[in-house]
Amino acid sequence: MADPTDKQLGFATRMSHHGRAGAKAHGFVNPPVHRGSTVLFPDCESRKSAAKQRYEQVLTYGTAGGPTHHMLEDMIAEIEGGTRALIVGTGLAAVMVPLLAYLKAGDHCLIPDSVYGPARNLADGLMKGWGIETTYYDPNVDEAGMRALIRPNTKVVYTESPGSHTFEVQDIPAIARAAHAAGAKVLMDNTWGFYNFQPFEHGVDVSIQALTKYAGGHSDILLGSVAVNTPEDWTVVKTAASQLGQFASPDDCWLCLRGLRTLPVRLRQQAEAGLVVARWLEGRPEVLRLLHPALPSHPQHALYARDFAAPCSLFGVVLQPRYSEADAEAVCDNLALFGIGASWGGYESLALPTATSITRTAKDPGLGGPAIRIHIGLEETADLIADLAQALDRLPG
After folding, report:
1. CA distance linking residue 221 with residue 215, whole number of Å
2. For a 10 Å CB count at each end of the chain, is N or C smaller?
3. Is 46 exposed, middle or buried (CB count within 10 Å of its CB: 0-12, 13-18, 19+)?
4. Looking at the Swiss-Prot or TrEMBL record, what is one Pfam family this protein matches (predicted)?
């Protein structure tokens, strides 16, 4: 009988069968939600024994998770290609936990200049106040360049590929070689590459996900995950999460489990739709260029093609320099089918002007014009293209 975790089975098959009782079990298809705080033990010895297994999936107290959390942990580890995964309340919490797990006062951290804005705020705020120094580096750094940036007290090299809003693809294996040679850990925000980039095959030590996005898939939960591939890294991140009081709602975990059942078909459909829309936009006279790693016109397309199995449906559009930031906002305002809002990965399409979302201190991204971040949902591409066409047609000139 086939094992649902067997890697020989297809991704969609594994997502349909993993984390539930099985096709031949008697009962409801979906496992129930397990909520609770206090865990009772038959005797004191049992409680002491459970405490010794605090790094395993045993019931000790509600904040350590229950069966619903454990099923989601296993599925995220499966998708990321790791051995263990930690579930936390938000994507930003998934950024915070490993950073604070590996860094202390006097340590140095390297973060790409293209990083997710709230991660930059964390580094410039709490981390700085706690005596942790951060250097922002050009996301297009090569191995030699990374070696030159690493100091004796550099403990973490953070990566995010592609970068938020500007979509630079990083050479993760090269960065990892330089970091590991100096004894530093490599952390990666892998939300754009969920499943399609296997982090531990490319030298990453800790992979971060905003499960709010594609994993949930319906824009109605807040969750994050931290995946690792070694027992040593699991002990570090699990200890930090426990000490920081990190916890995720079992109800959100259950909704995320439900979202993962359809993740393979949504990823495929939305990636394909995104490429259709991006190629159409690339031919519009109002557009200077596309920021989509899967397009041959992208500066790091070769790196994308080497390391990613497929793209996702999030990309950037740079308008011609004759247009202003107000014009980019007008395009978004005039769209009927694209919502204006943060996040992405849901079933709905979004368009967001990026002028106020880009902060750079190491190197100007050199976009050349005002930009809009586009997320393609599950609508018909013909309808989305028609909507974009009428909005672009309203631009002056």
Report:
1. 10
2. N
3. exposed
4. Cys_Met_Meta_PP
